[in-house]
Amino acid sequence: MSKLKTLLRNLGPGLLFASMAIGTSHLVLSTKAGAQYGWVMVIPIVLANILKYPFFEFGIRYTSVTDQSLIQGYLNLGRKYLWIYALVTVVSTFTILAALYIVTAGLLMNLFDISGVSEGVVALCLFVFIGTVLIIGKYRFLENSLKAVISILFVALLITTVMVLNKGAVPGAETFQRPEIFNEVGILFLISLVGWMPTAVEASGWVSLWSMENQKTMKEKPTLKESLQEFNAGYIMTALLAVFFLIIGWMTLYGTGTELSGNAVVFADQVVNLFTTHIGNWAYILIAVAAFATMFSTCMTAHDAVSRVSLDVLQKLFPDKSIFSSKHSFAVTVILMALINWIVIVGFGANMGNLVALATFVSFVMAPLVGWMNLKTVMGNDVPEAQRPKMGLQILTYLGMIFLSFFALYYCWILLV
């Protein structure tokens, strides 16, 4: 019981990680994986969660041991490493939030039957509202507001998954043919799925900064073991929910020939109907609210993270510039991130599919490099030898880098041939 109390008291970075990850990669990609390719897609989902684990764990480990962010660790290795991460962050800045917000806008329009306005306008309203909440509430409000949302979502998805399994798979169409996985279309989808499952590898820096913020709010700093336990709880929940979404897509759509739309509003309606088909129309409003809450919390978490990490990178690259260290710098960065990504949404014509594909591909290609940097950081002189990752975790890290590199190289080969 005391261990559970300690875990609940230390809830923070792992909870935020779960909230941020249970978004497009789960609601969109996991559901689509099950719907298009069936149960076999559980293999890349589980592999991605296992092989990417060390990359994120190192963010918690480094901060817990050194009281510094992982970004500072890159700088300690050498300025070139920080510039590499800065490049990855810039690309993420122009894609991830835009992809998340457009899906959330679609869910909101579906929930309240909003018509006559574009997804871009609704997304702009969300940017303004969430940006205001982040500026006023800061980290503590973010953490507290997500505890109930994640708990309710996990229970709701567990119940829905059990009901779907109990009802059984829908009958497939007579003309249905199992789609190829290892052709160009299948590989591209695998890259999207693995690239953002459970989330982008550069999010290890985000987790590190949340860990620092969490320590500031604690009366007593948690130990390395306690910090890792809290993060592991959030990570396991994230992986389970990915499998839940896959099962729901597989049992309700696989073999029917129904394709999930690339339009945010249509997709939102399709996903909500997947749930109500098995629970009943009476639950439509509850499911729609839960789906919207999922994406809303993801937007809020990712917006906070991208703003926080962008500011931290700028402060370390340009320490002499007082503009990046003023008391209003975080608020300005939150507003700037909102403006940049809204422009991206308008420029892409609010096409969710293009945004998700671009964001996930960039994250996928850069993942091995960021993973190697993380390993190099936690194995460096900043971390005492006794608190460095054990050999098993180091081996898992190399396996993860090889796994991600193989798919990235195979994708490049497809493009060239």
From TrEMBL:
What broad class describes the main subcellular location of this protein?
Answer: membrane
Q: Name one Pfam family in it.
A: Nramp
Recite the UniProt keywords alphabetically: Membrane, Transmembrane, Transmembrane helix
Transmembrane stretches, start-end? 40-60, 81-102, 114-136, 148-165, 185-210, 231-253, 282-307, 328-349, 355-375, 395-416
Tell me what topology the record assigns in the membrane.
Multi-pass membrane protein
Which InterPro entries does its entry note?
NRAMP_fam
Task: Report the superkingdom from the record.
Answer: Bacteria
* Subcellular localization(s) per the UniProt record: Membrane
Specify the protein name.
Divalent metal cation transporter
